[in-house]
Specification:
Blueprint lengths: L5 E8 L5 E11 L2 E4 L6 H9 L1 E6 L3 H8 L7 E3 L6 E3 L4 E11 L6 E11 L8 H14 L6 H18 L2 H17 L5
Antiparallel strand pairs: 1-2, 1-4, 2-3, 3-8, 4-7, 5-6, 7-8
Helix pairs in contact: 2-3, 2-5, 3-4, 3-5, 4-5
The chain binds flavin mononucleotide (FMN).
Length: about 190
Amino acid sequence: MNDQIFEAVVTTVSPAGQPHLAPMGVRYRGERVVLMPFKPSTTLDNIVATGCAVLNLITDARIFAGCVTGRRSWPLLPAERIAGMRLQAALGHVELELRERADDDQRPVLEMARIHEASHAPFIGLNRAQAAVLEGAILVSRLRMLPPDKVATEMAYLQTAIDKTAGAAEHEAWAWLREAVNRHQGQPL
Ligand SMILES: Cc1cc2nc3c(=O)[nH]c(=O)nc-3n(C[C@H](O)[C@H](O)[C@H](O)COP(=O)(O)O)c2cc1C
């Protein structure tokens, strides 16, 4: 059976102080948080260089869609116990330090210890449109690997959840994803 994976946004900072955001699937292994970035990865480079990262637990689906469509500037705040940054929009965040690294040519495994965690806003329930944006963001991040008809079919399926359950943020995120798909497929935007 596969490990259960939770989608979040990992914020890191380069040794020169440049913040970086990336959506990442995380696994929880006991008290540890496990990250598996594919090489090459700025997130990987930053964690190896600084030993730190922040796990941001979010429901603002625009951040997932934004990161895969070139919109990586989201308001950040300083972390409390590590030299890092967290997303202002995070419902909660976990400050992490690298404990173990299993290197790999394609996908190293980073085991991170929880140094500090805090909640900032309540979780108000699952929203299908947020889940649809998340799935759409994964499709957009794989546009070069997927057949165009598969992308079109899956976007059309996900559209139902957008139409029925989206708020303004999900509509905005969905528009960015559709624009990216249309641009890739050479269709009018
Ligand atoms: C929901 C979601 C989950 C993702 N999970 C991972 C992951 O676990 N590992 C990974 O390398 N990339 C993952 N990606 C793709 C990265 O976010 C993207 O390639 C990013 O640019 C990572 O590279 P970077 O560290 O150089 O920014 C995910 C993308 C999305 C939308």
